[in-house]
Design goal:
The protein has 132 residues and is mostly beta strands. It is 7% helix and 36% strand. The radius of gyration is 17 Å and the shape is globular. It starts with a strand and ends in an 8-residue tail after the last helix.
């Protein structure tokens, strides 16, 4: 059974929210590609829409949007996701995972693209109590 940690970023205020999902909610993400939009109900954000922006597998290997499928691939990289060169022109062979979310994916990164009628704090029951 699929089990993910979904990290949702809020571009408006820079906050991030982490959700551990499993079962039916996790199955909504299986087979999706980076860049796809998903209903936020899967992570408890009713009325919101989130866009999948990245992720990593159980071993910490990053997902790359330019690699098809969900399998591992060894790429010769000059920079970008998975490798940051220290010298100009430096290249390195790095193992990365494809853009499709599968059973081996552990973490999914996403950002909010459409907001619902309620605030995130209201939906998640965070703070907001000024009368204490």
């Amino acid at each position: 059974m699929a089990e993910f940690q979904v990290v949702v970023a809020d571009p408006e205020d820079g906050a991030t929210y982490q959700f551990d999902i499993e079962g039916q909610d996790a199955n909504r993400f299986i087979g999706r590609d980076l860049g796809d939009e998903v209903d936020g109900t899967a992570v408890g954000l009713d009325g919101y829409t989130i866009e999948l922006t990245g992720g990593s597998d159980n071993a910490g290997r990053p997902m790359r949007a330019d690699v098809a499928g969900q399998n591992l691939k060894a790429l010769l990289l000059t920079g970008g996701v998975g490798y940051k060169p220290t010298v100009e022109g430096e290249r390195k062979r790095v193992t990365v995972r494809g853009r499709e979310i599968g059973e081996e994916t552990r973490q999914i990164n996403a950002k909010i693209v459409e907001r619902g009628s309620q605030s995130i704090e209201e939906l998640l029951g965070l703070g907001g109590d000024d009368d204490e």
